[in-house]
Design a protein that fits this description.
Ribosomal Protein L9, domain 1; Rossmann fold; about 290 residues; 2 domains; 7-stranded mixed sheet; 3-stranded antiparallel sheet; transferase; alpha/beta; Arsenite_MeTrfase-like
């Protein structure tokens, strides 16, 4: 596992206390993660130090290409002036079928330059919020085009000065799952080939159901109709061994199942434009809670 972390080169004290052990517990013997402003791999090594012997550094120096199963991040990518190197590095170090799983601040439009330069908004994790459509295009360009929204929360500012600055921009905290998949293996979204996917309940912590994203939740043992893109995505991902996906049949036209939400940059942007303002509020004024 690798974590795109921040705060002076590694975990800040409170995050180290609360988050580092949790991240390490996900890694088994392979090690955990941390870094400064970009993904960095953490390797387990004998140590009696307070950080549990986890080393921090520049991912470009310590993580080999296609060597990491999962890259995680919490409210860090928005703080980077240029998102492309961070996302490109995540794509570089992920194994085929691996995933970038992160939460961050997004906006319903491009943030104007004078707000991007605002130090107060930067401190609130708002000035660097990503516009969903632009984010999706960037993800495709760096090789992580197969992505979806797992959870979304509305961010509400309780400070009048901040509200005056941002005007009618809507901010939300999104949890995103992106799978590194060869684009040639992916079917177009929302095409119906009569396929179903059945989850076997074998992922620890998700014995009864597993949510791939907001449009696809799979109950254990229940065949669930899926569009061609979702079927090929499951089979190409690290979750493939936990699913039985039926063979692709003849083309039946547009997929119209209950879980039919157009994916991709435009599809998710439209979904959020319609649904975000009805989303549950975040617990605080940013995603960094």
């Amino acid at each position: 596992m690798a974590d795109c972390a921040s705060a002076e080169g590694c975990w800040p004290p409170q995050a180290k206390k609360e988050c580092a052990p949790a991240a390490a517990s996900c890694c088994g013997e392979g090690g955990g993660a941390c870094g400064d402003g970009g993904p960095a791999k953490v390797e387990e090594e004998p140590s009696s130090s307070s950080d549990g012997g986890k080393s921090c550094g520049d991912a470009a120096a310590v993580a080999a290409p296609e060597s990491v199963d999962v890259v995680i991040s919490n409210c860090v990518i928005n703080l980077t002036p240029d998102k492309r190197p961070v996302l490109s590095e995540a794509a570089r170090i992920l194994k085929p079928g691996g995933e970038l799983y992160f939460s961050d601040v997004f906006a319903d439009r491009r943030i104007p330059k004078h707000l991007r330069d605002d130090k107060v908004l930067f401190g609130e994790c708002l000035s660097g919020a990503l516009y969903v459509k632009d984010f999706g295009q960037l993800m495709s360009e760096v090789g992580l085009g197969a992505w979806g929204v797992v959870n979304h929360l509305l961010i509400t500012a309780n400070n009048e000065k901040i509200l005056e600055r941002v005007g009618d921009i809507t901010f939300y905290s999104l949890t995103v799952r992106a799978i590194k998949v060869d684009p040639s293996k992916l079917e177009d979204a929302l095409e119906d080939f009569g396929q179903t996917a059945t989850y076997n309940g074998a992922i620890p912590g998700y014995e009864e159901f597993f949510s791939l994203d907001l449009k696809n939740t799979f109950a254990k043992g229940k065949p669930t109709p899926v569009d061609g893109l979702t079927a090929s995505l499951i089979l190409s991902s690290r979750y493939g061994p936990h699913f039985s996906v039926t063979e692709k049949g003849s083309h039946r036209g547009i997929f119209c199942g209950e879980n039919a939400i157009a994916g991709g940059p435009v599809g998710w942007a439209l979904f959020l434009a319609k649904e975000a303002k009805n989303a549950p509020p975040a617990k605080c004024g940013s995603c960094c809670c």
